[in-house]
Structures are given as structure tokens and as C-alpha cells.
Amino acid sequence: MKEIRIDSVNNDMIVFAKDRSKRPIDVVITQTEKEVSKEYEKKCPFCRGNEELSTKETFKIQEKNDWVVKSIYNKFPILDGVGKEIYGIHEVMIDTYRHNGNFYNMTEEEFKNLFVMYKNRYKNLINDNNVEYVSIFKNFLRKSGASLEHPHSQIISLSIIPPDIENEIAISKKYYMDKHKSLYDDIIKDEIQHKKRVIYNGKRFLVIVPYASKYSGEVRILFKEKIKFENIKDEDIYELSYIFMKLFKNLYRDKGYTPFNLCIHTHPKNIEQENYFNVHMHIIPRKYSFGGFELGTGVYVSSTNPEELAKKLKFK
Ligand SMILES: [Zn+2]
Ligand SMILES: [Zn+2]
């Protein structure tokens, strides 16, 4: 049976086809990348001890006189600080000093350092007068766009508001104007009530498999409070660290060493009011790719049953 579903945060249209996953092309996972075993790699510019191979650092957290996470300028930036038409600063945040570290094996403590760094760099970049938006994202493994093996995240400031954000903001603003309540509050309320797509329901965050997503297997983390990313509190960081440690263990158990992208969607700097948009994170496994139908129509076919996936990933 086929059914049309709309992703309410961005209005993406999805043809939900449960039976389609049985086609061989959708179930084959080609594992081309081996798990990294070495904690240190001689030629890696992101490894501790190889600082002379990397660019200038902008931030670090030290433990026993050695850095454990740090942020550096991107050697090959998408944008640089001199553009006239579009301006931005592009940094690489090294997730952990361990070459073989990754989201699937990082400890809660390591995630805590990572989020402290995310917040620090975000706060730093958003305060630039020329900047309208700051994007944090991560590519893991080559299939997701990563060019270096050592686990890292990226942060880029922009003198524009990117279209995907503009779109999400416009949708939530319209909802607020029409109904005098917040779209995100309603999603959170509905998902908690429905229960079956909830992976984790915490004090400050809700983790779900969305009812509809153009990316099969997406997991979404929603902030319950309408807080800007630069203002997240220690307790947000603690809860997020717990969530990431646990979620990625469960993802590994379910899908193995899979490439993924993490995208954090935050408020544009000059948004008039914060009360219709909640910061949220999209975690997108890169197991599937789009075909001509998707590229030619903007209609996406999904074969993942959100309830089944949520059941597998649910925190026990
Ligand atoms: Zn390395
Ligand atoms: Zn989003």
C-alpha cells in the first residue's frame, strides 16, 4: 500500500511504500570502509602530536596538558573571510584526539567535550557582525562526504540564511500566525502521545524517528525548550551527551559501521522571535541514494517504517 506523507517541519513530500524495501537494491549495504583501529596515525593532520601538519587552532579543551578536542581553520574552506557576495568562516572541529574514535564508540565524557566545543565555536561565530546564520554539520565516512578519516565535525558561518532554514522558519512562522501555537510544541506533544516513534523522551529533548522524512532511516532530536544554540546550558550538554552515546550504540547494533550526516538546525541570528522555532538535529544514515524520480520530481520514496525503526533504537 502506498501513502503520501508530508514532513511537517519542511513540507517535504514522501511516498511511503512499506513493501519497497524488499527490492534488493534497497537492502544491500555495501561496506567499503573498514573500521579504523589505530589510535594514532603518523600522517594524519588531525592526530595529537601532528600539530605541525594542521592549521591554526581556534579552541581546545585540555586534559593533563594534552588537548582532547580542538577546532582549527579549515584548510580548504567552502567560504573564507574575504568574500564580498558571500562571506563566512569555516572551521573543522576535531571530535576526539583518537584517530579511531567515532560516534559509535565515543564515551559520554567525550561527547560532553564535543558539545562544549560546538557551543563555544557557535557562540564565537554567530557574534560576527557580517553573519546571519551558523551551520554545524558532520560527515562520517567517505560516502557521506568526509574527505579525511579522523573523525571531525564542521562549523561554517554564513552572511546569508540558507534556503533549507529559510523554508523551515517560514513554515513554523506561518503555523504560529495561523494557529497561535508552536509547530514544534505540537509535534512534540503528538509524538509523545503516539509513543511508537519515540526513541527517547527526556527532560529537555525528544528523540524520534519522524513520521515522514525524505531520508530513509532519519533520526531527529528536538529541543523541547525554545532556546538558542549559543545559550544551551550545561544540563542540555549533559543530556545530549547521554543521548548521543546511547543512540549511536543502538544505531551500530542495528546498522553497523554506517556512514551518516549530522545537521544541526538553529535560529538565524536576527529572527524576530524565538517562540516558533526549536533547535533540532537531523541524523541521516547514508545507506540509500536518490534516483531519477526523486531528483526529477521532488517527491521522495521511503521504505523505512518509522515505528519499526524506533522500536529497534528505543533506549532501554
Ligand atoms: Zn588522526
Ligand atoms: Zn531541520
From TrEMBL:
Catalytic site positions: 152
One Pfam family matching this protein: DUF4921
Residues given in the record as Zn(2+) binding sites: 44, 47, 99, 150
Residues in the signal sequence: none
GO biological process: galactose metabolic process
One Gene Ontology molecular-function label: zinc ion binding
Cofactor(s) this protein requires: Zn(2+); Fe cation
Name this protein carries in UniProt: DUF4931 domain-containing protein
Organism lineage string: Bacteria, Bacillati, Bacillota, Clostridia, Peptostreptococcales
